[in-house]
Amino acid sequence: xxxxxxxxxxxxxxxxxxxxxxxxxxxxxxxxxxxxxxxxxxxxxxxxxxxxxxxxxxxxxxxxxxxxxxxxxxxxxxxxxxxxxxxxxxxxxxxxxxxxxxxxxxxxxxxxxxxxxxxxxxxxxxxxxxxxxxxxxxxxxxxxxxxxxxxxxxxxxxxxxxxxxxxxxxxxxxxxxxxxxxxxxxxxxxxxxxxxxxxxxxxxxxxxxxxxxxxxxxxxxxxxxxxxxxxxxxxxxxxxxxxxxxxxxxxxxxxxxxxxxxxxxxxxxxxxxxxxxxxxxxxxxxxxxxxxxxxxxxxxxxxxxxxxxxxxxxxxxxxxxxxxxxxxxxxxxxxxxxxxxxxxxxxxxxxxxxxxxxxxxxxx
Length: 364
Fold this sequence. Notes:
Layout: E1 6-10, H1 12-21, E2 28-33, H2 44-54, E3 62-67, H3 69-77, H4 82-95, H5 109-124, H6 128-132, E4 137-146, H7 157-171, E5 180-186, E6 205-209, H8 215-222, E7 232-233, E8 242-245, H9 257-260, E9 265-269, E10 297-302, H10 304-307, H11 320-324, H12 328-341, H13 343-353, E11 361-363
Parallel strand pairs: 1-11, 2-3, 2-9, 3-4, 5-6, 9-10
Antiparallel strand pairs: 1-10, 4-5, 4-8, 7-8
Helix pairs in contact: 2-4, 2-13, 5-8
């Protein structure tokens, strides 16, 4: 018998709620979208089910919080035609390919940034009002703004700055705030009435109104992995400086949702059980444990046993660009198979909603 593809985890208060009331679309107040590059591809079918079928059965406002590829996913959810838009995002992401200069194994950061900007414009061009003025969804794009040596991108200063950030983060996560701060671009009709769906006292944070003037720059910044893409400088309406991938400060958005939303639940389609705080925490296993921040969070994640049956026995990841080298068609085939198989995640979540047991929900 094949392993179940989906596992459902929940924080203690979320489990208690599900045991008493089950899980309905009206219970959801926040949906996060993690950084993680190609790993997020397997969440496409879940995104289409949640935003295309399930969540529209309710009417409450929902906050969508995203970093990096998660920010693009959450922005896509705000489009009028979200399901075909998610399908396009999936196709475009799988098909991406870059020209290599002679003697290079990877494309230049400038080339990737230019292509990325073009893709953003093609994807959201003419449709920004759908995202920014959505009647139900409030979009929050997370970016990382450099400070001190990281305040401007520089071929010497930037590597030194990230070395300092790495060392500071190893001592204490808050110390990372000396080098990088979290800047969240939030949509909403009134810039004076913006609110975050999480308590921001855990880390140095600023909030900026998300508008048509800064949307593309903010989303590109949130996806700008240091050294692989160029930083985005001086985003309109935001403090001057260099902005990078939101996953550096908030890799998996391990944020204090419980304090800000004591009643609603956080539904988190994720590519693994662990919700890692920052990108620099990936190797710090003691920071991968759940905290009270996630007490009201429900994580939908692929079963590790199911993952072993995917091409190469793993989720798609950025290393595949190196693994397959110039054989883009082989990479595209492997990623396409993983995405096709991931339809089981959405199917099994739907089945659980229609007749599953609360005993299927495991502790986060």
